[in-house]
Amino acid sequence: QQKVQQSPESLIVPEGGMASLNCTSSDRNVDYFWWYRQHSGKSPKMLMSIFSNGEKEEGRFTVHLNKASLHTSLHIRDSQPSDSALYLCAALIYTGNYKYVFGAGTRLKVIA
Amino acid sequence: DMKVTQMPRYLIKRMGENVLLECGQDMSHETMYWYRQDPGLGLQLIYISYDVDSNSEGDIPKGYRVSRKKREHFSLILDSAKTNQTSVYFCASRTGGRYAEQFFGPGTRLTVL
User: Fold this and answer.
1) Which of B34-73 are b and which e, b meaning 16 or more Cβ less than 10 Å from the residue's Cβ?
2) Which residues on chain A are in Cβ contact (under 8 Å) with B102?
3) CA-CA distances (angstroms) from residue A22 to A76, A89, A103, B76, B94?
4) Chain B contact for A2 (CB, 8 A cutoff)
5) Judging by DSSP bridges, how do beta strands B10-13 and B108-112 pair with one another?
6) Hey, is A111 helix, strand or coil?
7) How many CA atoms lie within 13 A of A109 on its CB side?
8) How many Å lie between the alpha carbon of A5 and the closest alpha carbon of chain B?
9) Maximum distance among all alpha carbons in chain A?
10) Where are the extended beta strands (E) located within chain A?
């Protein structure tokens, strides 16, 4: 069973709309989370990271983290067709060394 | 410009053949990773290398081995490839710091017939 669960599996939003993606880990050794974006046929690129409880905003992207529940969410406002991609959540787990555990991803499609 | 390279980008092999995937980075990163990506499964960790000759199994190491003789170079070897090893393989690297970013290579699409 995957230790990092992402929901929904897929999401369609209209251009200009809000996309909300969720990620939860079942591993209590999680140190913090990363969000990656992967366009079709490309490699994952780091989008945002969040290290402490609360909210972090960068342009149209906002990330929330609740460490107690090991839950993070990514919100994209004013979604654009270029935001269409696979969004991967990664938990950084520290057990003496650092290891990333990835969720299966949320596939976002923004339609004009 | 920080960069992770992978060779080859595409590879077709027959079942039972040996496969060598190569990864390089020009950032002197200590830690390097090999992942595979299959539809619906995200990225699965195969091996981690913490530095030269310091390698550790990831979550799915069976059927794979690695070699790291230079800090900038990390190889993934499949001895006698199987059809279920058909996948896209990504290499990544990062420094050792707690908040360091992980950088990915462009990937190798491997097909085992």
Assistant:
1) bbbbeeeebbbbbbbbeeeeebeebeebeebebbbeebbe
2) 34, 46, 100
3) 12, 9, 10, 33, 25
4) yes
5) parallel
6) strand
7) 5
8) 10
9) 47
10) 4-7, 10-14, 19-25, 30-38, 45-50, 54-58, 61-66, 71-76, 85-94, 98-102, 106-111
Measured between CB atoms, does A103 come within 8 Å of chain B? yes
Q: Which tokens is A38 given?
A: 């992967």
First to last CA, chain A: 36
- Closest-approach residue (CA) in chain A for B37: A104
Q: Is the pLDDT of residue B1 over 70?
A: no
Asked if residues B18 and B81 have their Cβ atoms less than 8 Å apart, the reply is yes
Query: A2 pLDDT exceeds 90?
Result: no
Task: Extract the tokens encoding A48.
Answer: 């945002």
How far apart CA B113 and CA B107 sit, in angstroms, is 19
> Residue B8, preceding bond cis, omega within 30 degrees?
yes
Contacts of A43 in chain B (CB under 8 A): 90, 104-107
Distance CA(A33)–CA(A63), nearest Å, equals: 10
Q: What is the pLDDT of residues B18-31, one digit of tens each?
A: 999 999 999 899 99
Instruction: Name which of A23-32, A61-70, B4-13, B67-76 the model is least confident about.
Output: A23-32
Which of A 12-51 lie inside 8 A of B, CB atoms?
Answer: 31, 34, 42-46, 49, 51
Residues of A in contact with B40 (CB under 8 A): 104
